[in-house]
Write a structure and sequence with these properties.
mainly alpha, single chain, Serine Threonine Protein Phosphatase 5, Tetratricopeptide repeat, TPR-like_helical_dom_sf, about 280 residues
């Protein structure tokens, strides 16, 4: 903030020195206000991207209290509440934004997103239905796919997921969500392919790796997939495979996978050790 203020003062000083014989005091005041608007815009962006989410909420609450008519500040508050995972408040904030006469379809998509985060699926669907079909965005189609999933409208979900993937250069999370949708339907081969695709797009996405072994385990394929993993991740994936095997009655294989998970983990793997002890105790009894 101090750096931004310094830049503002320097800019104003340079402006005043170069044009002091031409500009009136009113003109200089206008120039100063213009620099402040730029700085405030930068600060708003910082608050929405790198600031602590709850600090951002406090900042935008103060700002909207002072200037309640400014839509961009209301948006900032709504977005910061989502970042802070204060979903009930975020829903109310986005409702106020979308009620504004200058609200956009992007705002309505963000409102639907907040509703889904707050587990209000029917309201989210109603909001999305009011957005004209001519408005196309990655986020809109990703949310449409999730709503279709919740309604078990699988064909619609597949269409929306496919469209969303075509509208982003970073499709890994959407591929993972689509794969999870296939997994819940029992399409394990389709799910496995999508999880593999997601990992190829982003090999740091552990959720997709875990889902991949679930899809393979559901097919009774208990071999570890060839994906880049850390030692800790490998232990956790072995644990997931073990639980999948045990759930399907392959207890001996599950016990072996639990031992592998314990041996692989760089530290004490409490959850795996407890599961193995419970299995062995059950056998001995």
């Amino acid at each position: 903030m101090r750096h931004l203020i310094t830049l503002s003062v320097c800019a104003v000083s340079a402006f005043a020195l170069s044009a002091c014989d031409k500009k009136t005091g009113t003109d200089v005041d206008r120039a100063f206000q213009g620099v402040n608007v730029v700085d405030e815009s930068n600060l708003n962006d910082v608050m929405l991207s790198v600031a602590d989410p709850n600090e951002a909420v406090s900042y935008f609450q103060r700002a909207t209290g002072e200037q309640p008519e400014r839509l961009e500040l209301a948006r900032g508050l709504a977005k910061s509440l989502v970042r802070a995972k204060r979903t009930t408040e975020a829903v109310s904030a986005w409702k106020e934004v979308t009620d504004h006469k200058d609200a956009t379809d992007d705002d309505r998509v963000d409102f639907a997103d907040a509703l889904i985060r707050n587990n209000e699926w029917e309201r989210a669907e109603q909001v999305l239905d009011r957005i004209p079909p001519t408005f196309e965005s990655f986020k809109r189609y990703r949310l449409e796919a999730m709503v279709a999933d919740s309604n078990q409208e699988w064909q619609k979900a597949d269409t929306f997921y496919e469209t969303a993937i075509g509208l982003t250069t970073r499709p890994a999370n959407v591929m993972n969500n689509w794969g999870y949708s296939k997994l819940t339907r029992g399409d394990y081969i389709g799910a496995e392919k999508l999880f593999s695709d997601a990992i190829r797009q982003d090999n740091s996405l552990f959720t997709a790796k875990n889902n991949l072994v679930l899809a393979r385990g559901a097919q009774k394929n208990y071999a570890m997939p060839v994906v880049p993993v850390s030692q800790t991740e490998r232990a956790q994936l072995l644990y997931t495979l073990a639980l999948s095997a045990i759930k399907q009655g392959d207890t001996t294989i599950g016990k072996g996978l639990l031992r592998d998970a314990i041996d692989t983990h760089p530290q004490h793997f409490e959850a795996a050790a407890r599961s193995l002890a419970a299995l062995e105790d059950n056998v001995s009894n």
